[in-house]
Amino acid sequence: MSSGLHKKIESLRDQIRHHNYRYHALDDPEIPDIEYDRLLRELQALEAEYPELITPDSPTQRVGDAPISAFGTVQHELPMLSLGNAFSEDELREFHRRVLDKLELDDQAELKYAAEPKLDGAAVSLLYENGVLIRGATRGDGTTGEDITHNVRTIESIPLKLLGNGYPDRLEVRGEVFMPKAGFDEYNAKARAAGEKTFVNPRNAAAGSLRQLNPKLTAERPLDMYAYSVGVASGGTLPRRHSEIIDQLQEWGIKVCPERRVVIGADGCLEFYKNIGERRDALSYEIDGVVYKVDSLDMQAELGFVSRAPRWAVAHKFPAQEELTEVEAVEFQVGRTGAVTPVARLKPVFVGGVTVSNATLHNIDELHRKDVRVGDTVIVRRAGDVIPEVASVILGRRPSGTRRVQLPKKCPVCKSHVAREEGETVARCTGGLFCAAQRAEALKHFVSRRALDIEGFGGKLVEQLVAADRLKTPADIFQLSTKELSELERMGEKSANNLTASIQASKSTTLSRFLYALGIREVGDATAASLAAHFGKLKNVISATDEELQSVADVGPVVASRIRSFFDEQHNLDVIDRLQEYGVEWPESDPVKTPKDGALSGKTFVITGTLPTLTRDEAKETIQEAGGKVTGSVSSKTDYLLAGEKAGSKLAKAERLDVTILDEAALEKLISS
Ligand code: IVH
Fold it and tell me: What is the pTM of this model?
């Protein structure tokens, strides 16, 4: 093998390590992602060609490890300690006092502390030998941890090889692995939507992710790490100040928290605490306090330890974001879009800086997964300004005789059916315009510009009238008198006159606007226009079957079923009747006729996959113009499946049912024949 090849591969690795460092550790990339990908691909290609040249510290070797069957144990050469806590300014001042006394310093001594956020994740130890990461371990009980090398290797901000030089031959870096807030929220939202288990908090998310036997799973979790100290360091020297050690680690490519400062005395500590506290919610990661460490290592040595915690450091905690309380009731709230959400009514508890007496349970699946019951003791979590939530139930404290909470069959506000579509996590009230909870929003939509376009009828006015119970349905708008309007707050006679005039004017509208104004879910103005053009008359839309609805351009099975359920509710039909009674009108036309004698008449089509030139809507139109019908799902009544690339389950079903399968070219042939 040529040494040129070796050099080339090592140079690529060095470049990639450097850019990893710029990107992950410094958050300051020098090159665009595409350029980085090019370097990585070049290295991957060379390593594929010469596998004997692959080394474990190559940047390509992060997720390569096979799953393990159990964790090995790691004896920490130096114990991984914990920290004493200070919960108030007084306790912090007492800590400082003890430090000064022990060091025999007087009050005037300008003692330096390294102040850092206390990261809320899981502690790890990373052992580098001659700059190469050889082992990762959890803290465990402080003396014995678990070997998680295969998992820490997947965390991109942890270098597999240190940068630069001058590092000790054996260097143990310690720090916190954490899941950034955004990654945590995204992970939980996805898990929730998929009906899977969510993480209680980012700390559990980090700890749980590190304890995976399969590193591929860990690699999928958005984990990050900040180093905050060193353990073993032999065969080399380190600076004699904590703050300088951290700076030095950063130069060797290790990621450290940018929010660290050197401060003086208790006042300096308190100022840091206050400043970080104010910015806590804006930080991209969770912190549960700050840590102050006597900056001088000589002083640290003099101060020593009490039991398992150093005398030279303390964690100054923020008010807790998690607390225990009891569930007094579980109620269901109806949101503006009709979403029916379970809410826990709690015995009031002070958490995350406020008193919390309600917490969201997100949706019925999550409620059932956590199995929250009335009478349960639960952990409530309120992080930042997000809505408080029930994180988990303490099953050991469940009283006897509790029952599982069920989704109500009727809307608690308007008593319409509560429906939940297959595959949807959210249950919804089908009351639509009839439901008071959905009313204000539905009314704002009704008067909006692309709907009935009632000039001067703003959101505030809608809310005012709904609150006064003067507007229950859109039909009530046309019963408002000028006198009544002029008596409203902030409304003069002139505005009331203008408003009455625009209400009158809005009565002459179009079918398309009217359909849009009804606020049927998934029916935007484009779909409303297609429906109006296709059916011509409102009564045709109301009586259309699912299949007929699906023959309209851009109406698929989901939209069709939304339209059907809307018109299946008698309340909605009543509102429409009243609107027409009060004079809302539009010109009607004849429905579009599908040619009876086209090449495809009498034939039913289903379209799937990506076609080479036509969009799905274009294909649908083409088929309809030739007299064919297009439906959403394959059945024994389907004559043809028009299939493009990436066709999935519909293709399989069509094959099973012996439905003729066409590609775009075959369709064109069929039409022209
Ligand atoms: S120093 C000898 N610094 O807090 C002191 N710890 O209760 C060793 N932690 O297990 C820890 N952020 O997981 C230190 N900036 C920070 C920290 C930090 C979070 C965690 C760490 C440790 C626990 C101690």
Answer: 0.64
